[in-house]
Design a protein that fits this description.
There is one protein chain. By secondary structure, the protein is mainly alpha-helical. It is built from 14 helices and two strands; from the N terminus they run H-H-H-H-H-H-H-H-H-H-H-H-E-H-H-E.
Length: about 280
């Protein structure tokens, strides 16, 4: 018989997947809308709906009063919304709303099933499939700093840019923009391949927006907590973590946490891993 806690976790999973699917669907519609003849000028370019565009055009707007080409004031509105979510719940945008994050989860799931002969993964148990792989701890540790370096480069480059610095290499445009250039096509292939090989590769190592939002994990009031007195050290939560945070009980404020709540859903000890406000 399923306990009430198990039912609540299942409901939480369904809610998250539904929200992720909605954001992917809306992003696909935006991409389709901007390739329909005569529609691209009735609401701004595809870039105008990206929160990272608000970061890229910020310096230009405060120094010249104009946004970079393909960005608009809508970018600021969307960025403020994302920051609002993050101030409340840390990097929840990455775990619940970002369409690129959803696709990475999907590709990792495909890779796991294909490399394990189609066998379903048991929740809380480390998969024996060949893919996705994990980078060595040393390489992984230093590679995670790349996204912060990319954020700094993007902000620096935006000061003299005409178009957003990421315009020609943005994976969101490559996946959803439906207007591929040779460079964007290479970005698309790279995004798909790396997502199949390593869980949330873009999120963990390259995403400048994730780097910007990461600090909110340190003080966001809505967060996951673990009662160490109840924790059995089974490591089920670590087996399910999509961004491979090590020693989760000691890293609940990790900058890498995307607030996906997989640890909440996976824990089998009641009242141990909980989502709390405050």
């Amino acid at each position: 018989m399923k306990t009430s806690a198990t039912k609540e976790r299942k409901t939480l999973t369904q809610i998250r997947h539904t929200i992720q699917g909605m954001f992917v669907f809306v992003t696909v519609l935006l991409g389709v809308r901007h390739v329909i003849p005569g529609r691209e000028s009735t609401g701004g370019a595809f870039d105008a709906f990206c929160p990272m565009g608000g970061v890229e055009t910020f310096i230009s707007y405060i120094t010249t009063g104009h946004t970079l080409k393909t960005t608009t004031l809508l970018n600021f509105a969307i960025l403020i919304g994302v920051l609002g979510v993050s101030l409340l719940a840390g990097r929840a945008f990455c775990g619940w709303m970002c369409p690129l994050g959803t696709l990475q989860d999907m590709f990792a799931g495909w890779a796991r099933r294909l490399s394990s002969g189609g066998k379903p993964k048991r929740r809380g148990i480390r998969s024996k499939s060949k893919f996705p792989i994990k980078l060595s701890p040393k390489v992984d540790k230093w590679a995670r700093y790349l996204k912060y370096l990319i954020l700094l480069i993007v902000v620096w480059a935006s000061a003299t840019a005409v178009y957003p610095p990421l315009h020609e290499i943005c994976p969101a445009r490559a996946v959803f923009g439906l207007q591929l250039t040779p460079l964007l096509a290479s970005v698309l292939v790279t995004f798909v391949v790396t997502s199949l090989l390593v869980k949330r590769f873009w999120c963990k190592y390259l995403c400048p927006l994730g780097a910007l939002l990461a600090i909110t994990n340190k003080f966001a009031p809505l967060r996951v907590t673990i009662d160490k007195n109840n924790c059995t050290g089974c490591h089920r939560c670590e087996a399910e973590c999509p961004v491979d945070i090590p020693a989760i009980p000691d890293n609940m404020r990790s900058l890498e946490c995307i607030q996906c709540l997989e640890c909440v859903e996976t824990c089998t000890v009641e009242d141990t891993v909980l989502l709390k406000l405050g």
